[in-house]
Protein 1
Amino acid sequence: MLITFEGIDGSGKSTQARLLHAHAEEHGWRPLLVREPGGTDLSERVRTILLDPEAHIDPRAELLLFAAARAQLVHEVIRPALSEGRLVIADRFYDSTTAYQGGGRGIAEASWLRSFHQFVTSNLRPRRTYLVDVPLMVAAERRGSTERDRMEGAGDEFFEHVRATYLRLADAEAGRIVRLDGTRPPEVLHTDIVRDVERLLAEASVGTGTAASG
Ligand code: ADP
Ligand code: TYD
C-alpha cells in the first residue's frame, strides 16, 4: 500500500511521515519511507539540480525534472517494495507537481497533469494522501531562518497558489486525500493518521502486525 504526505514547505508533513514510519516499524508493517525528489542515485542527483538556488531552470524543464526523479523512484524502489507487500510512505508524490508546477508556476492544467502523472508512474495511485494544511505564516515560522533552497525562494504569491491548488485537489479527490489541520500538535495529528491507516490496512484484509500489501 502506498501512502503519501503533502503540504507546503514547513507544514510539518515530513514530521508526520517519519512518525508514521516509526509506528509502522514498531508494529511490523515493514514500512519503507521515501522522499521526493530523491530516493535513488539518479533522483538524488536531479534533486541537487532542482533545489540549487543558483540554477536557472525553465518551468517546463522543472516539471520534467521532478517527473524524471519520480519515474526512477517509482520503477526502481516503490514498485518493487509494493510487490513485496511493504507499506510505502512517501514524503511528497505527484500531488506536489500538481500544486507547485501546476498551481505555483501555472504551467499546466490539472486535467493534463492527471494523465501525465499516470504516464510517469505507470498508473500507480496512492491509497491515501494526507494533506497537512497550514496557513503560509505558520509554515514560514516553522521553516525559520535557515537558508532557502531554490523552491523555497519562490515567494508568498507562489505559495498561496500552491496551497490553494492543494485545497482544490483535496476537494476534488475527497476519497483519497484527507486534509488535516496542521496547526494542531504533532502527536494529535499522528494519532488521527494512525487510526486511519489501521482502518485501511484492515480493509485491505491485511492483519496489522503482519504485512501491508500494495
Ligand atoms: P515539512 O516537511 O512540511 O517541510 P517538517 O516536518 O520538517 O515540515 O517541520 C518543519 C518544522 O516544524 C520542524 O521544526 C518541526 O519540528 C516543526 N513541526 C512539525 N509539525 C509541527 C506541528 N504539528 N506543530 C508545531 N511544529 C511542528
Ligand atoms: P524539500 O527540501 O524536500 O522540501 P520539504 O521538506 O518541504 O518537502 O524540497 C522539495 C521542494 O521541491 C519543495 O519546495 C517542493 C518542491 N517540489 C515541487 O515543486 N514539485 C514536485 O513534484 C516535488 C516532489 C517537490
Protein 2
Amino acid sequence: MRWSDRPVWLLPVLATVICVGIGLAVFLGTGGQGRLAAPTAQESGRALIGGPFELVNHEGETVTEADFAGRPMLIYFGFTYCPDVCPMSLQVMAAALDQLEPDARAEFQTLLISVDPERDTPELLAQYVTSEAFPEGLTGLTGTPEQVRRAAEAYRVFYRRSEQDGSMAEYLVDHSSIIYFMDRQGQFVEAFPHATSPAQIARRLQRFLEEEGSGSSA
Ligand code: NI
C-alpha cells in the first residue's frame, strides 16, 4: 500500500510503533549472546553501552564526554522534527525528575543527542531544549553526520532516515527510543525502554543516589 492511501494520523502512530519496536529490539539485544532470558541490561551492558564522543552543543561549542563527567546523565537520542516519540520521551524524563527533591533533581545532567544532524543545527536545538515540557537544563547535542554516527554507535542506537516521503523537508528518522542512565564516570547504569513510566525512572534515580550516599554503589 502506498503512504498516500493512509489517513494522515496514521503516520505518527506508525512512527511510534517503529520507535518502540526498535527500542525494544535494541534493549533486548543488550541482554547479549542472543539469550532472551539473559541477565538484565544493567548487568550485561555495563561495558557495552556508552563511551567517548565528540559533538557540538546547542551553544555551538564542541564538547566531549569529559565535559559532562561528574554528574549522572540521562541521555536520549532523537530529533527536533520528531512528531511525537521524542517529545513524549523528553516529557517522561522531565516528569521523572519532577518526582525527585530539587537537590536530587539538580544532580542529573540531561542530554538530547540529535540523530538528524542535517536539520538539527545548534540554533534549532537551542530553541527546542527550552520547551517548558522538557527537563530544565536539557542540553542539545548535534554535530557532523560522522560525529553523530560515532556517538550513536557507542550507545548502540539505531537510526535511519525514513524513505516514506520523497520530500527532503518532510522526512522522519526512525530511531531507537531509549533513555540511557549513565553514572558520574560515564559508565552505563541502566537503559529505560520506551514504555518505562516516570515513576519507575524516578525510583531508579533515587535508588542510585541512595546507594551512592551509603557507599554501596560500584
Ligand atoms: Ni523520535
